[in-house]
Each structure stands twice: as structure tokens, then as C-alpha cells.
Design brief:
Length: 399
């Protein structure tokens, strides 16, 4: 959900505003704009392994592993940590800033075996054993399928590769939504999670104050529009985003990109590294399905944490007229919530609703900065001090 408006707003700005930006010279160009996630990791001096995980329904997911930090081999007795990105994002979220500011690098330097997941349909997971991205069936999924197939497959793969029985799971935004759904339905996975750290946790979204909420009432119309256009994937073209990354967000015209960030995530420019805007927009949005966007819009309207609403076809899919609700009270794995007062997507009121239902809640931490927003959990200048220090404390406590 976090970048739904980014695409449309950038398109609007592109057509409405004539911007003349001189081509930047080679010395001002940030090479991280054109690097993929593996190159980002290598460029900061860290080792990386690329793995491919096959889901039961045939998707081939890309997973990056940072086996240890710059200092050498993995520290004994430090467990595997699996980190999952949010909607329209990718594993680059965790290595997008400099080492002391990026959770993936911080964990690796602390001796953890770090695994970075990628959901089906994003930049790094656009393969299937039978289907191709130009087929509509490839995009027939929402977070229901991530919870049923993607997350279990990646967790099982990491446990098999490491020989461990449990791992630490850290998710952001949709990375928490899918995990809450998985742990509510596939109860056996509760025993595989030593601790679930939920950054900007999202289940119900009935209280969001982001501009995204204004799209929700038009869910049916938006879905119909994409249907008649034959569009199932929600992924801006690489060419468009690369243009904005290099010639708008990484130039004196970056105020336009700052405006987009403000519109979607709220006002917290003090935590936004504006010198990295070009890098951020080059890597996000990373793609997803239209169905995923529609699913979240449905939740805004229903104010419930349910499976996808097929309306008149619910009986076919669920043998009932309404979509089933996920029951998070069934979760037994320890859960730690990290949330923010300035988060307009994972609204504090929705976090309160979630807290009241969780029976295995071990910690609820409010970021001590009122303006801290949804995207700050992965990009903020002081995320290490405001969020990641608490994450590290929790992991140490549950080792």
C-alpha cells in the first residue's frame, strides 16, 4: 500500500509540470541508482549469496543472504534472521542506506545470518515454472497467497539451509500482514518463529489517515478499469522510474519527490535523506499485483482483517457469502510490535485493535518521535537509533 499514490502522482507531475533539468555530470550521479540488491550489498563491502525458492504453486522467489558482516565469519550461536519487505517493495529496503543505517547490514555486523525475502511479482521474483509475467494468471494473487505459499516456502528454505529449527522473523508493512495471516492459518509455523518483530504492523486498516484512503471507495471502479484494460500487474516501467530517479529526484527538482513522500507517508522530512531520493525511487515501487492493491482497499472499507472479497463468488472460494476473517488470537509465536504515532498507514488506532487480539504479545514499542512515519522504518536517517536498537535488544533477549 505504501507507494500506491507514488506512481499516479509522479505521472501527474510529469504531465502537468514542464521541468528542464540539465543532465548531471558523471561525478554527481549516485551509482546506487543502477545497482541491483546484490550489487548494493557488495558495494558496501558485505558478502552476498543469491538463492531461489520454489513455492508449492510454482513461483520462483529470489532470496538474498548476507552470511556475516564485514568482520569475517558468522559469530557462533547467532541465529538466522529472515526479513520481509512491504507492499510494492523488495529486499533492497534493508540495504538501501549506508551500513550503519540499514537493518540488513546492522544484523550482519552483529553476527546474525541474514536472509532477505522477495514476494512474488516484484523486481526479483517475476518467474514461475509455468506462467510468465505477461499472463494474467501470473498476477492472480494478494497477501492471501503470500501467507499460504511465499512466506512458508522461504521460511522452510532458510531453516533447511541453516539446519536450524527456528528463526527470527522481521517484517515491515505487508511483510507483517502476510505473517499475521500465515501464523493465524498455518499454526505449525508458530513453532518455527523464535520471535516475530512487526515493524509498522498492518492487519486492520480502518483508521488510516493517508491520502491512500481516498482511493478505497472507488475500489470497484479501479478494479473494473484495470480489468477492461487487461492490466493485472501494478508496476511502473523501469524506464519511467529510472528517469525520475536520475533527472528529478536526484536533482534540484527533488522537491517534487519530497512532495510525493509527504502526500503518501506524512510529514517527516527531517528523517528523509534527500540526497538519497534518487536511489529510493530507483528501487521502489518494485511491483506487485493489482489484486494486492484492491485487497488492502477492501480492508480500508470493511475495517476487518479478512481474506480477499470475491463478492458474489465468495461462496465458490470460501463456501460462505463473506470473506473469512483471520483470527490473530490463534498466534502463539512471540510477537513484538514496533509502531509510530506519525504512521498514517499503520495507524496507532489500528495497532491498538491488533494489540487487544494478540495473546502472545511480548512487547509494544512506540517510536519516540511523533513525526516518524510508515516509510521511516526502512529509510529514516535515525532509524538505527529510533528503531533498530530496539530490534537488536529484542533479538538478544530471545536468543
Amino acid at each position: 500500500m505504501k507507494t500506491v499514490l507514488v506512481y499516479f502522482t509522479l505521472l501527474g507531475l510529469f504531465s502537468a509540470v514542464q521541468i528542464t533539468v540539465n543532465k548531471k555530470n558523471e561525478f554527481s550521479f549516485d551509482p546506487d541508482i543502477t545497482r541491483n540488491v546484490s550489487d548494493l550489498i557488495l558495494s558496501k563491502g558485505y558478502p552476498v549469496e543469491n538463492h531461489v525458492v520454489r513455492t508449492k504453486d510454482g513461483y520462483l522467489l529470489s532470496v538474498q543472504r548476507i552470511p556475516h558482516g564485514k568482520g569475517g565469519e558468522k559469530i557462533p550461536n547467532k541465529q538466522a534472521v529472515f526479513i520481509q519487505h512491504g507492499l510494492l517493495s523488495s529486499s533492497s529496503d534493508w540495504v538501501i542506506n549506508f551500513p550503519e543505517q540499514s537493518l540488513g547490514f546492522i544484523l550482519a555486523d552483529a553476527g546474525y545470518d541474514v536472509w532477505l525475502g522477495n514476494c512474488r511479482g516484484n523486481t526479483y521474483s517475476r518467474r514461475h515454472v509455468k506462467y510468465t509475467p505477461d499472463m494474467e494468471v501470473f498476477w492472480d494473487y494478494s497477501f492471501d497467497q503470500l501467507a499460504e505459499y511465499d512466506f512458508p516456502a522461504m521460511i522452510d528454505y532458510v531453516l533447511k539451509e541453516t539446519g536450524e529449527e527456528q528463526l527470527f522473523y522481521i517484517g515491515h508493512s505487508q511483510g507483517t500482514t502476510g505473517a499475521f495471516a500465515m501464523l493465524s492459518e498455518s499454526l505449525e509455523y508458530n513453532k518455527k518463529i523464535k520471535l516475530f518483530v512487526a515493524l509498522a504492523p498492518v492487519t486492520t486498516v480502518g483508521h488510516i489517515t493517508s491520502a491512500v484512503k481516498y482511493l478505497a471507495p472507488f475500489t470497484t471502479e479501479i478494479e473494473f478499469l484495470f480489468e477492461i484494460l487487461g492490466v493485472k500487474d501494478f508496476a511502473p516501467s523501469d524506464a519511467l522510474m529510472k528517469y525520475f530517479s536520475e533527472y528529478v529526484c536526484d536533482t534540484e527538482a527533488k522537491f517534487l519527490c519530497e512532495y510525493v513522500m509527504y502526500l503518501v507517508f506524512g510529514a517527516d522530512l527531517q528523517q528523509l535523506n534527500t540526497t538519497r531520493l534518487g536511489v529510493y525511487t530507483a528501487h521502489t515501487p518494485a511491483g506487485s499485483s493489482v489484486k494486492s492493491i484492491v485487497h488492502y482497499a477492501q480492508l480500508v472499507l470493511s475495517k476487518k482483517f479478512t481474506k480477499f472479497d470475491y463478492r458474489k463468488n465468495n461462496v465458490i472460494h470460501y463456501n460462505q457469502t463473506t470473506p473469512p476473517e483471520y483470527d490473530v488470537s490463534k498466534i502463539t509465536a512471540p510477537v513484538a510490535l514496533l509502531w509510530a504515532l506519525g504512521d498514517t498507514l499503520a495507524d496507532p488506532d489500528d495497532v491498538v485493535v491488533l494489540q487487544s487480539k494478540l495473546k502472545s504479545l511480548v512487547s509494544s514499542y512506540c517510536v519516540p518521535l511523533p513525526s516518524f512515519n510508515h516509510n521511516d522504518f526502512v529509510q529514516a536517517l535515525d532509524a538505527n537509533r529510533l528503531v533498530y536498537d530496539e530490534v537488536m535488544r529484542l533479538l538478544k533477549e530471545f536468543e
